[in-house]
Amino acid sequence: MAIVGGHRDLGYLLSFYFWCKATALFGTISFLRAVAVYILAKSSLRHIDVWHYAAIPMFVVTVILSLPTIRNYDMAKKSAQLDPGRFYVYELGGYLPVEWREYVTQARELKELSVLEEYWGLWSAIARKHGRPPVDSVIHALGNIRAVFHNAISRLPDLVITTRYLTATDWQQWSLSTNYWFYKPLMENYAPLFTSPTTIVWQRAKSKNMPPVSCLVNKHGGVTLSVLPGYYEMSLQLKYLGERRSLLMVRNNINFAADANGYLSLNPRSNTAEFPVIATRAGENEYDLKVIGSDNNKNNGFSVLRCTARKIVVEDPEILPLTNYRADNMAYNLSDVSWLNGVARNFPGFFVLYSRFNKDEFLAGKAIRFANGEVRHINRMELSGTRCSSF
Questions:
Q1: What percent of the chain has pLDDT over 90?
Q2: What is the residue extent of each domain of the chain?
Q3: Which residues lie closer than 8 Å to 37 by C-beta, 6 or more apart?
Q4: Residue-level pLDDT at 150
Q5: What are phi and psi of 360, to 5 degrees?
Q6: CA distances from 309 to 234, 312, 357 (A)
C-alpha cells in the first residue's frame, strides 16, 4: 500500500479516496434500500419494486453531480487543442507538452523492441506493452514479486527505461541504493541511448568489466575502501544478531532521501548484501554500520565477515551524478530569457545543481574564480528545488 511508504500527502492515495467515497455512497444507498424494503414489507406497499422507483432519481442526481467534471474536462480539452506547447498523442487519447514529441516518435519507431520500465509509463503505453512483472514499478516489487522483476531485467530486454537524476534527485538515488538488484544488470549490460524530460532510455550494449578494488573489514566493525573518488559496488557477508523488529543500516553516502542521512537499510534476514557506495575522497573511505530500534546496538549486534568491492564504470551523470562526491565547477547548462548557460543575463549570479558538496562550496562569503581568471565573492546563496543559486 502506498500509505506504508509515507506518501499520504503526495497524491498517491487519490484513487483510494475515490474508492472510499464510492464505497460509502453505494453502501449508504444499499442501506437505505434495505430500510425501505423493511418498511414496505410491513405496509400495504410491500409489492412495490424499490429499485424501479429509485433508479430514475439516482440517475438524475448522478448526472447533476457529474456536470462540473464534464465541463472542466471539456474546457481543458479545448485549451490543450489550442495550446501550441502541446501535441496530440492518439495512442493515449490526450495531449503532451511538445518536449515529449521526440520521445513519442522513438516509442512508435522502436515499439517492436522488448522494453522494461522502472516505472511503467508513456513508452509502454504507446507501444501497447504490459511487460512480465505484475506490478507497475520496481519500488512495488516486494516479496516474491521482486524475483519476477529481477528475472525480467536478467533476461536483458532490448531497452530499459529509468528515472533521470534531475526528475527526483533524492528519490532516484534512494531507488538506486535500495533496488541495486535492478540497477546492477542495467549498468553492466546497457548504455544510455537518449533522454526524455524525465527518463533515460538504455540500449543493450557490450558487457562492461567492473574492476575489483581493495575492501577490508576495519577494527570498528565497518568496512574501508582504499580508492579514488567515485561510485563502487560493495558486497558484504555478515551476521546480524539484532532484534526482529530492528534495522541494520550501512552508510553508502548516496541515500539522502527523507532522513536517511547517507545510510541504507539492509535485509536483516540475509547473510549477504550488495549495494552501491560513493567514495568521496582519494585514499581510505570508511563505511560504518549501525542498528536502529534495538537496545543491542553495539558492535555485537552484527558482524561483518567479508567484504569485496568493484568499480562502477558507468559515468552518465543522469544516473550517477558527479556532484555526489565533488563540487561542480560548471554552471548548469540552461539558457532562456533569464539565463545563459546557467549564468544570469541581467544581474551577477549563476546556478549549479543542488548537492551536499555544491551547497557547502558556494556559500555566502566564499570567493570563486571564473574561467577568465576573474575572482568574485558570493553575497548570498539560495536553494530552490534542484538548484543552488549564488548571487
A1: 38
A2: 2-82, 94-204, 212-317, 327-390
A3: 50
A4: 92
A5: -85, -25
A6: 4, 9, 24
